[in-house]
Fold this sequence. Notes:
alpha/beta, Rossmann fold, two-stranded antiparallel sheet
Amino acid sequence: MLTNLIIMADKPLKRYIFASDFDNTLTFNDSGYVLSELVGIPTEEFERKATGMAKINLVQQGAELAYLLLHDPEFKAKVRKEQLREVGKRIRLKGEIKLLYQILKNGIDGYEFDFYVLSAAPVEVIQSALEGIVPPDHIFGTEFLYTPTGEIDTIVRATAGYGKVAVLDRLVEKHVAGPDHVIYTGDGSSDIHVMLHINARDGLTIAVSESRDVSQIAKRTVLSTSALAVLAPILEEVAGWERYRIRGFFEANGMLLQEWERVRTDWLTLRPTAEDKSAQVEVISTRPQQTLV
């Protein structure tokens, strides 16, 4: 008698890298402003200097604070390593970051996610803010060397602009993940390089602000006070879930998805024809995009 043996192998997990910016992506404010307030430098002065550097492209986008800490006499004289850690304790984090990390770490329906933070903010700020939430070795920020008294001496590396692309490529190689198995979320101009890089390789990019710098590049945009909101496009685009299933998943994890509106904003600047140069009009229209509250 012949016996048919059927061996059922466990379905392998599909592995993804989830990378997130820090300032204004996982937080409600910018670490540069919090640091300025802490050391007694007017936030208007920090904004003036940072904006000026951005306009003349003096440094990579997002690395303005790192440049000031190294080269601006006022910042260099006042800022010490311990104060960077204190900024991390004072910065306002978005809700449910720890829950987001735990859900992604545990995996979702055959999908496994490695959570990383890539930011131009000083690594001490990020590690302090996310202590007990994200492991230090999963955080990549701007790194400095310090004098014995805690003063900033030199810079090791800045995770800004193309620097984020370099870190992300190393992570993809480390995890032997396909370039299309990368998810990135960010809010501003320092995320442009990495989002374009990921889009070109069929990954998923998610903007968490309406800034035209990234909302026109990112494949999805999510607006929410909760960090957990980025799960909605991930579950739709990666796992292929329907909205009713996503709602049930949030509720199963103790979160009620109260509002889910889809609005996409088109920014149009209209100029009069050669016959009529008397006016210039900016028009805003809406089409489907994703907004969570």
